[in-house]
Structures are given as structure tokens and as C-alpha cells.
Design a protein that fits this description.
This protein is of the alpha+beta class and about 100 residues long. The protein has 4 helices and 5 strands. The chain is globular.
């Protein structure tokens, strides 16, 4: 099996995406990790919350291949999951005096 990461960068979402790891929305306007890769000749991009990607730093290839989004959400520390979910809530202005 051959695998190569061609691009790995932080970008600001111009539209909503789904996190490859936790399968929760990456909402428009937040920064996320975009990873472009080739595996066995097939090109793909993986979009991930920055918090989710940080959780995978110690993973090997087998962990990546076997990951399940539901199990990953269970694996996330509660405070990280809360932070990811908080990003999904639109911020409504409360001060209209200006």
C-alpha cells in the first residue's frame, strides 16, 4: 500500500464540510485542517477540526484505516468534544445599540 500526503494546511471554511474524524459539521467561517493525499493511486482530501486532528498525533497508519467516527467521538475528551460542538452554534449578536 502506498500513501503520500501532498498538502496539509489550515484553511478557513467558505462553506460547511464534514469532519473526516468525528463526522460533525465544520461550519462556515471556522479554521480547519485540509489534508490532500494519494493512496494507492487514488486522490482524496480529508477535512478535520483542528481539535480532532490534534487528538490523532500518536496514531499510526492502522489507527487511521480502522477509525470509526462514532467511536472517535467517544474517544475525544469531553472538553474537546464540547469545543467542537460549540463551534457549530452560530454566534448571534446581542448588542444592537451600535
Amino acid at each position: 500500500m502506498s500513501y503520500a500526503c501532498l498538502e496539509n494546511k489550515i484553511v478557513k471554511a467558505r462553506k460547511q464540510h464534514r469532519c473526516y474524524l468525528c463526522d460533525l459539521p465544520i461550519v462556515k467561517g471556522i479554521k480547519y485542517i485540509r489534508r490532500a493525499c494519494v493512496e494507492d493511486g487514488d486522490f482524496f482530501t480529508a477535512k478535520m477540526h483542528q481539535q480532532c486532528e490534534m487528538t490523532t498525533k500518536a496514531w499510526d497508519l492502522g489507527d487511521w484505516e480502522a477509525h470509526d467516527s462514532y467511536e472517535f467521538r467517544e474517544y475525544l475528551a469531553p472538553e474537546i468534544l464540547a469545543e467542537v460542538k460549540a463551534e457549530q452554534t452560530p454566534q448571534v449578536p446581542t448588542d444592537f445599540s451600535k
